[in-house]
């Protein structure tokens, strides 16, 4: 495959837009073979699709190029979202490109620095609420209904249309259907979107089976995992979700019912990983594979490790983990985990003595 040929708009025949897109050249992200981590886990066919390599550093750009394009096509004059960070960074950039005003609501104190930085620099009206993401989403929903802003959270179907293309690219890059796709789950939009896209490819006759859709949540924020384990069709929301992976710190995922269908219909599963497991895998990806991701993204690969240990994954499976956001999104978590740089006098003997 040729990376340059892949992009969201390569698949425009099965996307909703008719006119010209608002694009920052999203999609076409690399698929890496995780040779060392795969060897450690006894999984020779373990891959990571690095969605952090999108224009604003997360998979949200795939959704926003379609969502913001549709906003213009529908004649909307302003856009809004609630966000744990990445959605706001992405929407701010695409709204800037489209030339429409943008309002974003963030849970105060719980958004990684890089994401806030992006929303601010791209010119969004950034508002921190003293409440969590679930509350911010309720509030922005109410604002959009009462004041006619266009809502671009994953309740917006056009967003999910764009995110379908992750699955399309994986099929193209792997050269077939992987046995399993593993995604971190927050609001559960992305796993639902990938499933929808692959179902469409199947209906069109391009593929003849689906990967086992596997959702990973953080132990402190795992309503979808609980629903799968307890065989429920509706969700019991968590009122105080907590995890170092702030991107997926969500207690009442709005797309949960769709995600449950995706997981069950494909014979997939859901699992939770602790913050320690997430941070250990973030480090392994960085140090063994050279792949820099934010904590929520490492959750997918940490989930594979956990499922292997539980004997729930076959060693010969071909597995694609979606790693959803870039390392640079969350520098503060890195600083808390790693030794700070050693500061020395500017002479060679000091240098040699610290390296000894
Ligand atoms: N990974 C990252 C890096 C995310 O930012 C998100 C969601 C997810 C995974 C989960 O995806 O919600 O479709 O299940 N972030 C949203 C936001 C909630 O506001 O940026 P999901």
UniProtKB/TrEMBL annotation:
Keywords: Amino-acid biosynthesis, Lyase, Pyridoxal phosphate, Threonine biosynthesis. One of its GO terms (biological process) is isoleucine biosynthetic process. Pyridoxal 5'-phosphate binds at residues 86, 186-190, 324. The modification N6-(pyridoxal phosphate)lysine is found at residue 60. Its EC number is 4.2.3.1. The keyword Amino-acid biosynthesis applies. Its cofactor is pyridoxal 5'-phosphate. It is an enzyme of class 4 (lyase). Pfam families: PALP. One of its GO terms (molecular function) is threonine synthase activity. Residues 22-325 form the Tryptophan synthase beta chain-like PALP domain. It comes from the Archaea. PANTHER family: L-THREONINE DEHYDRATASE CATABOLIC TDCB, THREONINE DEHYDRATASE, MITOCHONDRIAL-RELATED. Catalyzes the gamma-elimination of phosphate from L-phosphohomoserine and the beta-addition of water to produce L-threonine. This is Threonine synthase. It comes from Methanoculleus receptaculi. The gene is thrC.
């Amino acid at each position: 495959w040729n990376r340059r040929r892949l992009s969201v708009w390569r698949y425009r025949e099965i996307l909703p837009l008719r006119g010209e897109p608002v694009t920052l050249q999203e999609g076409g992200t690399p698929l890496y073979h995780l040779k060392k981590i795969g060897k450690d886990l006894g999984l020779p066919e373990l891959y990571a699709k690095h969605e952090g390599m999108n224009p604003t550093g997360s998979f949200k750009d795939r959704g926003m190029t379609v969502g913001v394009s549709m906003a213009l096509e529908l004649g909307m004059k302003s856009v809004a979202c609630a966000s744990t960070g990445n959605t706001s960074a992405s929407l701010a950039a695409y709204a800037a490109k489209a030339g429409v005003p943008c309002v974003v609501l963030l849970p105060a104190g719980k958004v990684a620095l890089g994401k806030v930085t992006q929303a601010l620099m791209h010119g969004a009206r950034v508002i921190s609420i003293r409440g969590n993401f679930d509350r911010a989403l309720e509030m922005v929903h109410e604002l959009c209904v009462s004041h006619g802003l266009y809502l671009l959270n994953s309740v917006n179907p056009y967003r999910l249309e764009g995110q379908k293309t992750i699955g399309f690219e994986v099929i193209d890059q792997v050269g077939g259907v992987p046995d399993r796709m593993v995604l971190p789950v927050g609001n559960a939009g992305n796993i639902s979107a990938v499933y929808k896209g692959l179902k469409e490819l199947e209906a069109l006759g391009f593929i003849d089976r689906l990967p086992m859709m596997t959702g990973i949540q953080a132990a402190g924020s795992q309503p979808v995992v609980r629903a799968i384990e307890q065989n429920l069709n509706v969700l019991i929301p968590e009122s105080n979700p907590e995890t170092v992976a702030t991107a997926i710190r969500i207690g009442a995922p709005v797309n949960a019912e769709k995600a449950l269908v995706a997981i069950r219909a494909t014979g997939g599963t859901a699992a939770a990983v602790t913050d320690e497991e997430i941070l250990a895998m973030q480090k392994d990806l960085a140090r063994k594979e050279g792949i820099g991701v934010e904590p929520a993204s490492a959750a997918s690969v940490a989930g594979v490790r956990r499922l292997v240990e539980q004997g729930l994954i076959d060693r010969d499976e071909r597995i694609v983990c979606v790693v959803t956001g870039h390392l640079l999104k969350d520098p503060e978590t890195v600083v808390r985990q790693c030794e700070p740089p050693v500061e020395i006098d500017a002479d060679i003997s000091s240098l040699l003595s610290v390296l000894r």
